[in-house]
Amino acid sequence: MKKLLLYTSLCFLGCYTAFAQKKPKKTTPPPAPIAKKALTHDVYDFWKDIPERVVSNNGQWFGYALNPQEGDGKVVFQNFVTNQTDSVARGGELRFSNDSEFAVFKIKPQLSATKAAKRAKKKKDEMPKDSLGIYALSTKKLSKFPAIQSFKLPEKGSEWVAYLGESPKVKPDTTKKAPTRRAKRESDENGYRLVTRMLKTSTERAFGFVTDYEVSKNGKRLAFATSGNDSTKAGVYVFEPTSNQLQQVYEGHSKHKFKKLSFDENGEQLAFIADLDTNSKAQIRLPKLFYWKAGQATAARLADEANQPAAQGWLVSGEYTPRFAKDGSKLFFGTNPKPIVQDTTLLTEEIVNVEVWHWQDERLQTQQKVSLERDKKQSYLAVAHLNDLKLTQLGTLEVPDVTLVNEGNADFAVGKSDRRYSHQHWDWNPVEDAYIISLRDGSKKMAKEKIEGSARTSPEGKYLYWFSNPDTAWFAHDITANQTIQLTNNKTVKYADEEDDHPDFPNPYGIAGWTKNDQYLLVYDRFDIWQIDPKKPTSLVKLTDGRAAKNQYRYVRLDAEERNIDLGKSLLLRTVNETTRQEGFSQLTGSAIQRLYEGDFKVGMAVLKAKDADRVLFTKETFKEYPDWYATDLSFKNVKRVTEANAQQANYWWGSVEIVNWRAGDGTPLQGLLYKPENFDPTKKYPMMTYFYEKNSENIHTHYAPRPIRSYINFSYFTSNGYVVFVPDIVYKDGYPGQSAYNCIVPGVLSMIDKGFVDKDKIGISGHSWGGYQTAYLVTQTNLFRAAEAGAPVSNMTSAYGGIRWDSGMSRQAQYERTQSRIGGTLWEKPMQYLENSPLFHAPKIETPVLMMHNDDDGAVPWYQGIEFYMALKRLNKPVWMLNYNGEKHGLTKRQNMKDFAVRLYQYFDHYLKDAPAPEWMSEGLPMVEKGIRQGLSPVSSQKASQLGSGSQK
Questions:
Q1: Of residues 777, 781, 768, 771, the one with CA closest to residue 797
Q2: Which residues form the signal peptide (predicted)?
C-alpha cells in the first residue's frame, strides 16, 4: 500500500517587547499544507469537462459550458476587457449573437427533477422541459423562457432569435361555460408555439402550431410551417422580424405536412417539401417540391411524382433537404424510386422473413441490414435550373454518390460509384469510378476508372484529386483537359506513413488544402508541408524545414468558412517535435518560419479565433494538467489561462510521466511511457500495471481525468493509488502479431524490473480489443504477470476470420489479411500463422488469472470469441471471470455500467497486486437470480479469498 505523507505544522513563538498600555501584536500562522488523498470512485461525478466553447465576434467574450460528469453544470461568460466572469446554472448549446451583445442558450432542468419524474413514470409531456436563456452581456440581465424545444439564431444577423416551445399555461375560466368543441392541443403532430424575439427591444411575435421553421443565414427572414388554428390558416409563411411583415406563401390543409424548409444564401429564395395527402395511413407518400422567391405572392410547385426528372415511377424525396447553389441560380433536391411496401392484409403468421445470401451480392446481407433504414431514405440528387425551371436528374442507381462542385456554382457535379468493386468484401481499401456529370442534361463522362483511393474535388472545381493506395502517391485529374497527373512518387519524399507495419498500403499523411484558384495543393509528409503545382508537379516547393530537427508542421485553420489557403497571408502552424515531444505554434510567412510558443505540453488543433479581432484561444494539457483554455493574440507573446475546470485536483495525489527506452528481443530500439505515483520513492517496490495498444509514446502529454471506465484503465487513478503504469510501444512483423507483442512488451517489462522499484511479483497486464487479444496471447507465453485483464479479445483467429463485424456488417477477413491483425494472407494460405497466433490453442499453458469484459452486443469483436476463451479456461480449471454487460457494445456506453466495471477492475487488480480482500463476485460469482439486484462488490473473508488460488507462480 502506498503510504500517504503526514504533514505537521510548525508552531512559531512570537517575540515582542511589552510597552505600557499596548496590546500584544497578533501573528497569522501560515496556512496548513493540503492533506492530499488518493482518487476514489466517488470523485467521478463532480470531475468537470468543458464540452462547449465559443468566442464572440469582437473578441471580448469567451463563453463555455462547465459540466460535471454527472450533475448540473453551467455556462460561463468571461470578459477579456474587464476580466470579470458570470455564469448561468445548467446552461448549454451556447451561441453569441453576431453583434457580440447577447448570449443565447438552453437551460436544462435540474437533474434531480428529471430523475424524480422518471421514477414517477411521468409521460413525455409531463417531464421537466428545457428553458431558453437570453443573457445581455453588457448589463448581465438574464431573461428566461420556459418549456422550449429549440432555438435558432441567425448566423450573420444579430437583431433577433426564434424559439419553438409550449404555449404558456392558462388557467381555465370557471365562470364561463366550457366550450362544446375540444380545443386543439399542441403536439409533435399539430406543432408548437414559435416566437421571434427582438434581442434589444424585447418585442415578440408569436405563431401557433408550428411544425417546422428555418432562419435565413443573414437574419433577414424566417420561414415556418403551421397546421393552423382559428386565427392562422395552415400552410407555409415567410416572416421578416425587423419589419414585422408576414406573408403566407402556401395555403394548405391542417393535415398537410411541410418540412425541409431551406433558404438561399441571401434569404431571397425559399424551398420546402410538402406532403399534401390527407390520408395519414397511406403507406406511400407523394412529396412535392415547392419554390418561392421574394416578390412572389405564392410558392410554385417545381416537382412532384408526375413531374420529376428521374425514371418513370420515381418520386420527389421527402428525406433530402433542398439546397440552393451559393449564387442562387440552381436548386438541388432529391428523388428516389417508389418504395416497396408490405401487404397490410397479411397476418403476421403469413409473412415469410427470409434472407437470401447470394454469391454475387454487391453488399453483404449483413451490411444491407446495418444500412437498411438509411437505404430506405436514400435520395438521388437532382437539380432545378431556376432561370428556366428545367429539371435534371444527376444521381442514379449506378452512380448514387453525387457531390456539388464550387458550392453548386459550377455547371457540373462529380459522381462516384464503387458498385463494380463492392463485392470484394475481403478488401477494405476503397475502389471507385469517378464521373463528371453535366448539370444541364445529366450526361455522365468517366473521369477516372478504378481509383484505388477516395477522390475529392478541389474547392474551385478544377481538379479531382486522391491518394492512390497501390502507387503510394497523390494524383490529380484536370477536369477541363481530361488529363490525369501523378503529383508525387513517394521516392524522394515520402507522403505516406514511413513507419507503417501492416501488410497493406500505408496511409497518407494528408493535406493542408488548396490555395486560391486551385493553383497549388499543399501536402504533408511526416514533418513538412509541400507546395505542389498540378501543372508542374516536378516543381516541388518545401514550405517548412522540419525533418532535420524532427519538427512536424501542420496547418491550423482559423476560419471555419475558409475554402482556400491564402499564401499571401501568415499561416498558423501547429508544431510537434518527435524527439522532445514538445508542442506549440509557429507562424509561416512566405518562406520564413517564426516560432511563437512551445513547451512540454500538448496543444490541440481546435484553435478558436474571434471573427473580427486578434483574439485566439487554444487548449494545452499535460498528464497533470486538464486541457484548460488559454487566450492570446496571433503573436502568442502574452498567453493567459482563462479556465480552471478542476481546481479540486490539487487535493488528490496524481503522478508523473516520462519516456523510457529499451530494446526489443530482436534488438529493435523502442520507447514507451512510464507513469509514476506522486512523491515517487525509487527505493520502494511498487506494483506495476502494463497497458498497451500499438504505439502510445506520442501521448506523453495526454491528460487522463478520473472517470468511469469505457474499455481501458485510467492511468491517473492507478498512479494516485500507488501503482506504476508501463505503456510500451509495439512494432510488428507481418504474420506474427502475437510474437511481435511478446518481443516488445516482455523485454520492456523486464527492463522496468531492472530499474529496481518494481515488485516483480506484483505486475498486472490489461488491454482491450486489439490490446485484449495481445493480453490473452501473452499469458499463454509467459508467467511474468500476476493477473491479467483482456477486454473483448479475439482468442481464435480461425473462427473469427470468417465472421462479421456486426456494427458495420462487413466481413472480418480483411482484419486478418491486411489490417490490424497483420497475418498477411488468407486462412488457407497461412493456416499455421492463424493457429500459432490464436491464444485459444495455447490455453493449457496459462497460469495467470484472467478477467475479461466482453459484451453480448459487441459489434467489433464477436462475443463468441470471449466465450471460446472463457470456456477453454473454465474447462482447464484456470481462474477466469467474464463480465458481460447486457446490450452493451465493444466499449461500455451506459454510465452505470462504466462505474461498475471501474470498481470491479480495480478490485481485481488490488486483490492480486496489493493483497486486498477479494470481493464476493470474484470468490463466489453472481447467480443469475441476483443479477441487477445484488452486485457482490463487498469483500469476503480471508478464508474465502484463499479459495481463489495464488494465480501465476513465479
A1: 777
A2: 1-20
